[in-house]
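Training component of the fellowship. As part of building independent skills, the fellow (R.M.) carried out the full modelling exercise for a liganded target. The chosen ligand was iron/sulfur cluster. The inputs are recorded below so that the supervisory panel can assess the work.
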Amino acid sequence: MPKIIRKPLSKIPPKSKLAPAKRVKKTARKSVEKSVEKSIKASKPWTPAEVYEAFSRFRKANPEPRGELEHLNPYTLLVAVVLSAQATDAGVNKATRELFAVADTPQKTLALGEERVRDYIKSIGLYRNKARNVIALSEKLIADFNSEVPRTRAELESLPGAGRKTANVVLNMAFGEHTMAVDTHVFRVGNRTGLAPGKTPLEVELGLERVIPDEFMLHAHHWLILHGRYTCLARKPRCEVCLINDLCRWPEKTV
Ligand code: SF4
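Fellow's submitted model of the complex:
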């Protein structure tokens, strides 16, 4: 009879022995995934009239929404967005206020050097890597783009530390293009509301671009971010004060 080899049970940590933070993170991620799945399945597509109505309300409540990342020019905006990956805007602003006072151009950043940039931004997560990227992108701007921030997606995405989201934010905020940057807030709102359900940020981005009328696209990114940050909160959405609670398709909305 063949011998059955069993893995010793002691090597598999019981759920209760997992570090609490890991357990919470895993549970939170699962519940977000579940809720996204649910809303993708459950949502009935919005009609064009409903989408128009929702964005008219956002516009009426906040005609000129502003991003919360502080910057002085397109270059400092680009640097701020690169620094904001997996960090809060408030945390980035705290660090960049002093950095941008001494380095608001690629040349000044290079003159400062990587070590000093690192010192200015060390309160931000992944600061070593980010300082390296800020130096490298400044070098590339000088070498390839005449020290200017480029205006095309491909060129922006070629810069160290900059991906699709960075390109979308810079194109929108610095150059007024109708792009849709999908961060964690926009991803959640797009899915929960049923406006643009998707399993990846790119799916949500393309879905939102498809349904939002062009006249709202310049500000749509900020309206959705602010909505996610202050109203449609991840853990406890404030459905009772939500401007679009009658239109929202989320099966778990509380009104
Ligand atoms: S009704 Fe609730 S879940 Fe829907 S968008 Fe508003 S806050 Fe978010």
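The panel noted the following from the submitted structure. Residues 71 and 77 are 5 Å apart (CA to CA). Residues 192-193, 231-232, 237-239, 242, 244-245, 248, 250, 253 surround iron/sulfur cluster (CB under 6 Å).
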